[in-house]
Amino acid sequence: MILSIESSCDDSSIAITDRLTKKLIFHKKISQEADHAYYGGVVPELASRLHAIALPDILEELREYLPTLKAVAVTNQPGLGVTLLEGIAMAKTLAMLLKIPLIEVNHLKGHIYSLFIEKSSIMPLLVLLISGGHTQMINVSSLDTMQLLATSMDDSVGESFDKVAKMMGLGYPGGSIIEALAHGGDEGRFDFPVPLRHSPLLAFSLSGLKNAVRLEIERLGGEANLTPQDKSDISASFQKAIRLHLIQKSKKIFQSQPTRDFALVGGASANLSIRQAYEKLCREFGKTLHVVPLEYCSDNAAMIGRYALECYERKRFIDPDKIDIGVTKKLQNGDFL
Ligand code: KG4
Ligand code: ZN
Q1: 78 lines ligand 1 (CB under 6 A)
Q2: Is there a single domain that holds both residue 176 and residue 138?
Q3: Residues 105 and 172 both lie in one domain
Q4: Residue closest by Cα to atom 8 of ligand 1
């Protein structure tokens, strides 16, 4: 059994995965969304204190498995420094006390391996990671060869959903709220600009679109004057612009990438209108679309455990005295994760 811990942002999660069958034996996640909703976004210090309470609570529930553990894995980057440290401290302590190896896991690779929870992996694979922290198209050739093909120049997809929701006073996190409102909205009412529409750049950008939404809300008299229909129409029109942007850039990438398998991962990949747009695009290009079960799209320890299985097989361990928050450098197209 491998115990895995995730605390890179506002979800405290621990999983136990069976090494031989890849089955999840235990998985629990305590989300802090309600605690951060008041502030309209994640407050790192508050998140860190909540992890310090939630992680030991979850550990208490799985006490019976401790003697069966063969290794402990933890997300060490990228994420919020103060929250990563909570998971790292617990993982390091367990590894030392139980005298078992420690495995460090890159959160983005964890998201990619969320596709393979309780399953065998499929590679090569083209992956679009859309989360609260990242928007990246990645060419995944193997466990060690994951090359960035395009990234966001500014905000990420999830972040832009969160910020637009905040502008309309809708609460946090905004993605699922905006998606629900968009169902009753007219996506043709506001003609928000599709980012980088006329640019040949293989990149994503969402801050201009966010600004266009802000100006429209001001034109309508500010948040306080928005009717429920205005909010639905803004949500639908904004979601449409994001979808068109993702599809337009993905199409360009698909033209030069013959890889047959394509996958959507990350919190924002739970969005059904984005999923449907990719179903159509993949049909057009003869690609097979893979998506993550909804429960594993957002941050969780099951995906960290799944990646850790691969590290365990290859004996990729880290000395508990040496583990630290990883230094996350800004990646350019062509760089490896
Ligand atoms: O992967 P995740 O849990 O955290 C990061 O690694 O960043 O992603 C969280 C993000 C949030 O920004 C949230 O608003 C977004 O995923 N999200 C969605 C939806 N559900 C969650 N965005 C769009 N549509 C959704 N249905
Ligand atoms: Zn994540």
Answers
A1: no
A2: yes
A3: no
A4: 267
Token pair for 33: 């969304």
Domain count, the chain: 2
Ion ligand 2: residue ranges with CB closer than 5 A: 131, 299
Q: How far is the CA of 222 from the centre of ligand 2 (A)?
A: 32
| Same-domain check for residues 169 and 80 | no
- HSE at residue 23, side-chain half, CA atoms within 13 A, is 2
- The response to whether residue 174 sits with its C-beta less than 6 Å from ligand 1 reads yes
pLDDT per residue as tens, the chain (337 positions): 999 999 999 999 999 999 999 999 999 999 999 999 888 789 999 999 999 999 999 999 999 999 999 999 999 999 999 999 999 999 999 999 999 999 999 999 999 999 999 999 999 999 999 999 999 999 999 999 999 999 999 999 999 999 999 999 998 899 999 999 999 999 999 999 999 999 999 999 999 999 999 999 999 999 999 999 999 999 999 999 999 999 999 999 999 999 999 999 999 999 999 999 999 999 999 999 999 999 999 999 999 999 999 999 999 999 999 999 988 788 999 999 9
Identify whether 322 is part of a domain.
Answer: no
For residue 168, give Cα distances in angstroms to 4, 231, 232, 233.
37, 7, 10, 12
Q: Are 72 and 161 within one domain?
A: no
**Residue 323 resides in a domain:** no
Query: What span, in angstroms and rounded, lies between the C-alpha atoms of 53 and 36?
Result: 16
What residue numbers bound the domain in which 262 lies? 125-292
In this structure, what is the dihedral angle of CA atoms 271, 272, 277, 278, given to the nearest 10 degrees? Answer: 70
In a domain, 166, yes or no: yes
Would you say residue 106 lies in a domain? yes
Q: Say yes or no: 40 and 150 in one domain.
A: no
Q: Give the CA angle between residues 147, 4, 11 to the nearest 5°.
A: 85
Give the number of whichever ligand sits closest to the CA of residue 130.
1
Residues 303 and 286 in one domain: no
